[in-house]
Structures
1.
Amino acid sequence: MRMMRMLGAIAALFVAAGAPARAAELDAGVIDAAKKEGKLSLYTSFIGNPLHPAIVKTFERKYGIAVEVYDARATEINERVRTEQTTGRFIADVFQNGQATLERLEKEQGILQPHGGLPNSANLLAAHPATATRVPSYILGYGILANTNLVKPADEPKSWTDLADVKWKGKLMSDDLRAPGGGAILFAAIQDTLGADFHRALALNNIVFSRDVGVDEKRVAAGEFPLRMPQLVSNMAQLKGLPVKFIMALEGAPYVRFDLAVLKNAPHPNAARLFINHYIGEEAQLMYANGALIPVIEGAAAKAGEAMRGIAGMKLMGTTRPETQEAYYALAKEIYK
Amino acid sequence: MSGQTAGTISQAPGGVINRGGFARRYLQGRAAGVAALALILGFLTLYPFGMLLYGSLHSTPPGMAGEFNLNGYAEVFSGPAVIILLNTIGISLAKTIPALAMAVFLAWIIARTDTPWAGKLEVLITLPFFIPPILTAMAWAMLGNPQVGLLNTLWKWMTGSTVSPINVYSWGGVVWHMIQYSTPFLFLFIVDIFRAMDPSLEESSRMCGASRWRTFRGITLVLMMPALTNSFILSFIRGIESFESPLFFGTPAKITVITTEIYNSINHHATPDYQYATAISFSVMAMMFLLVFAQWRILRGRSFTTVTGKGYQPSVMKLGRWRWATFAFCILFFFVTVVLPVSQLFIGSFFRFFGFYQWDMLTLEHYRNVFASSEIWRAFGNTMLLGLIGASLTMALGAVVAYISIRTKWRGRRLIEALAWLPWMMPGMVLGIGFLWAFAMLPGPIPIYGTIWALLLAYVTLGTPVSVRVMSGAYAQLSFDLEECSRVHGATFFQTLWRILVALAWPSFAVGWVLTFFMIMRELSASILLYSVGSEVLSVTLMKLWANGLAEQVSVIGLMMMMLVIVFRWVQLRFLKSRISTL
């Protein structure tokens, strides 16, 4: 009998590891208080996130709490939050931003307040734990975009180091490596993994920088450039039907994790907690996994649709860190003049 | 003409004759009016500028601990920034001079020659100004990229050459893209000045034996000096502040101008360098102020009156066979600046992807998505509301400021004019930050921040320089004797204002209104910082679509905006025509 119980426990552990963890609810008191607050305001730097409306709807349907989403580019939204916090105009409840940026803003401006514990945070991946203030919400992974008419399979770069090959001189288009966004993430990941010497070798290939991601992807598809980096894997669905291919580099994917946090003096703190807990619940995370983003809770990747499973579980290479952000911008400007 | 001595007979500008106590009350009321106007303009301009000045002198933005220093300005006057400034001036001159020459030529063709279908051509010539720059940038990138650009491919196919003659990612590309916007902008300013000009002086010149060219150079152009210098300065300053063209075509070619430098200082750091961004903006502003001051000095004390009390018919030059050449020139301009890029957008909007014109990619999906989007319709509704109210308020404010500045000698008029000018001299992305700081710092009970009022106030501020310039040019051409005649015949001040000044200057008012309306429609820098949930505007929605790679949907909206322009301009010109015939 004892043996049976032990086998049962082991089996349960395996099941738990392979399937998404069950959603856990906050106390009824918090939920009631959140419902009384009636609404919340989400500020996000992921501008026009196509999954936000759907995820917000699931929350509104479940709890009857309205969510107002204000999205703007990172610089603008950061300054707006800073201004509102310093002038006492507390409008926003939940702030979503890149992990490094949010961590830095918390340290420099003290704009976050503790979320007070969220049941669903127990399901977060071990590599992406929550802190007392910040909670991971999803991850965006990057690779290389290749024009399939111009790049034969045999010539495709397999690794980030292949891009330094002289055959790509003048043929590489890139998000600006000296600026926040995909470019800075790629710079940091390469710098931490391959070092500055590789950057110097890469710079010799006269990379053309451009920051209009949506247009740039189509410029590659049209044949203006054979390769573009870094390419968001989640954008590939929009390029379906074009002669382009996503290449996952051997070293892994540079990535950016978006975190959620409750802002100080949030006017709807209970609704904010409830929203974040919902965001890292199974329903929302599966929606991200099926939208070619990387979920942050256990088992969600395995439960994603077959086509998305590989993306949801992709190998991650590196990302920006608050302690090196400014130094890396300066280094990038020095190398890629 | 203004008399300020109380107790004696005095005559105010516009011919108001007053006596004794009435004159005192009039003067007090006038002073209060000027003070109120200065206060309004001060709130709209000096207040956000004050916040920005603080930002340029303080190591951190308002509300954060830091120290006062001049580090931002020290950085501005270091080597690289000065070179960037010189580059920017060079680019702005390179686009303003040909754009002005072309605008004058086009305006002359439309207003003063018998070129066929001039009315329709006038609408077509102005169209490029109203197309969102980012859309034409994308279209020109498809047409003129050196690798697979349509024009280069065509050239290679025709000549067998392997060399691409056009590269839009270059200095030339930046200047060319800017010219496309400057020319119709300047044309809009100039065409009505040509149209409203009494030809008697030109006729006298011709009767005295001067050639047409000499008459044009010695009379027409000289009489248009205020309008031309105003237009030149407006366009030159706008060139310094141009952002989309250098960002899109200059960045890949490693061309940096002031605006991209400001953009980089805000966006290319972990913590935005607002001190440098605002310091460089104020330094450029000081330089531009010198330019405006020089214009004031040049034009001071000279008369440019061309609209007098005498009846006249705007003279139309008979060009004979040459009218087809001028017609062809207008059509060529329209073809190159509108047909070429817009055809890319139009055709592209019916395919799944721009530039991939295959049968299996034909779709109406982008139109369906745009028409079915409640977010787009809400933004459209908000924008129309803000555009209608904002443009009307802006033009009313501009008309009053211009009147005081041009038609009176009132004390404080220069201050008012300078205040109205300020927003034009500050790059939009920096001024947007100024509005954010200013409105957020207002005392709690003043409910502007986070409401649609914040957007409206920002739009009125941003539009006032154009409205003042448009109305100043119009007022400068009106003879004072028109007002005096009206007053002598018993009309009140307001009757005179309405029946003479408004009636004669209203074509310019209408042009200014359209300009302001579409400026509001396109404005992004302040909108993105000031909008709130529920008060989204079209420019913000377009930017979100663009950021998500939905350029095809952006094009659909851009094409709709163009249709709106055509309707507006058609209505305006029909109305204009009927008004002119009754003058």
2.
Amino acid sequence: MNKHLISAADLSKDDALLILDTAEELAAVSERSIKKLPTLRGRTVVNLFFEDSTRTRISFEAAAKRLSADVINFSAKGSSVSKGESLKDTALTLEAMGADAVVIRHGASGAPHRLANWVRGSVVNAGDGTHEHPTQALLDAFSMRRRLGSLEGRKITIVGDVLHSRVARSNVLLLATLGADVTLVAPPTLLPVSVGTWPCEVSYDLDAVLPKSDVVMMLRVQKERMNAAYFPSEREYSRRYGLDRDRFAKMPDDAIVMHPGPMNRGMEIAADVADSPRSTIVEQVANGVTTRMAVLYLLLGGESAQ
Amino acid sequence: MIIRNVRVLGGEPVDIRVADGTITEIGTGLQGAEEIVDGRGAIALPGLVDLHTHLREPGREDAETVLTGTQSAARGGYTAVHAMANTSPVADTAGVVEQVYRLGQEGGYCDVQPVGAVTVGLEGRQLAELGAMADSAARVRVFSDDGHCVDDAVLMRRALEYVKAFDGVVAQHAQEPRLTSGAQMNEGVISGRLGLAGWPAVAEEAIIARDCLLAAHVGSRLHICHVSTAGSVEILRWAKSKGWNVTAEVTPHHLLLTDALVEESPNGSYNPIYKVNPPLRTRADVEALRAALADGTIDVVATDHAPHPVEDKETEWAAAAMGMIGLETALSVVQESMVDTGLLDWAGVAERMSLKPAEIGRLSGHGNPLEVGAPANITLYDPGARTEVDPRAFASKSRNTPYEGMTLPGRIVATFLRGKPTVLEGKLV
């Protein structure tokens, strides 16, 4: 394993499988009434959040606390960052506090790479701009494995705003590493012009792809895209790329539906579909804590949970 | 003064006699009681002329001043630089251009020829007083909103027409603004992977095509700043084939570096030292730019020397300033990319880094062949040296060079401005 987890591309297949297997072992802990392990006692994990993301922050916070680490939450709002302190100065401050790991969420792509130049501890990317969100991809893979078993050769369809999605980038990289066959479905305006060089297939036709999918992952459509002429209207987007009940019926009977959250119900996903038993959306939240425990454990701790 | 043992444009060794700022004799074994400078076989070039320099004064003296910028220019072998208008206040009046011009004269390291803004405040709405700047002591001939594109087609047409009255030229920063809103790097394979908003080649090419057509329509002179794409080269080749009065420049960094450095470099990923506008492009673009500079489709090399203080680069990518310094490395980079690759000889380098830029800028006192009677603006260059680029050794106030740690060929040995040495033995005089 690398010292940092910044991109899903940092993970070899062995690394990725080790994280997923470790998460599986740690999941047992989460099911106990006392959910705490002493593994990271005395280690300090800083959650450095430059963007509001309560769900991701509390997921990392819960993961670190269950491993007995000391957790410092550093939110950009109301801190020196909002008074103009640079990322470098913030990093040096954290360094002086002796952070063993810094979990960073930042609106600028590449901010975790820059941070890694300035701190000695491990850097974990909790989402950087429109670049990557590797722990999301890991928890998605973990959720898929729990439902489907091995991902080797599985058909996984990711639908939505790929151009601006850090979830899509990390998932494409990690799933390719794990041997799955990924297809991206989106209006052409929401795909990078270079998407043909990615390790996946691309389609503009959701209906054609659904019957062949083992997993359908719907991405959130950001409000600001709706006003920037990427597509004509919310209704047209929903009609062409939304997962409604009729489309859901076209999926194989054992195929699952995923969404990284937060959802726009009625836009990219219908409420019935989101709440169906074949949706993993709530599990994904629980699995997030377990997977992030595995990441922190392996970056800061040891080789195996036992 | 006698400059001994130099090879003019890389030819046979000769001596050059200089008196009263002028070359008075060129020959072998010149005798006289004057001061002697030993050239030790260095190549003698006419003093280099930069069409595109940001000196930052007035307004951003923390990044560069006219004095430090001209010292940097002298260290790079330049005897004249065109100072871009995006200062604070903007160089859009006779008062500001005269101030910048005079600061250059007072420093004495390198002539500073101010570039005037095309529009008031670089805002793209109303023509600046181009005539007043042309008639001022600074005698402005090059007008540019560099940093901003004159994207309004009517305004661009008017500017092209208006400057004809005083033989001016509009130097366009070709960047369609709507296509590049929030753009961070070249749009392509790397930007897609890195999740950085793309700056597509078409945003440059569309403006160049439009402006070539406009310049042809109104019969004006057009210059294109920092051409960066293979497609732009094709359009320029076509415009020139029509006989239209269009010239273009390329920067040293676009001749050597590619957008791959944003993803992976000795300085890490997402290092804003590589953030520049227009952005670093692909290897295919670099090859096309080199070929275009060699065949004359691109007329000149211009540095786009853009100093920034450390804190404006030591940030996350999106927050960082765009630009890189280049005066002190320009000739080395041109040697590396054009001479050592066999694409240009030293006469070709002199043409593209001295003669032609002076002609485009209408600087009669610069860019003259090294002949008897010419002003003694002379650059001595040792192409055999190889040095590791150390920004701490630069005369520029800023350190934002993309070449730090790289080993580049060549070294400026001496620079003479009208016979007066500004650099000797590689050091400022």
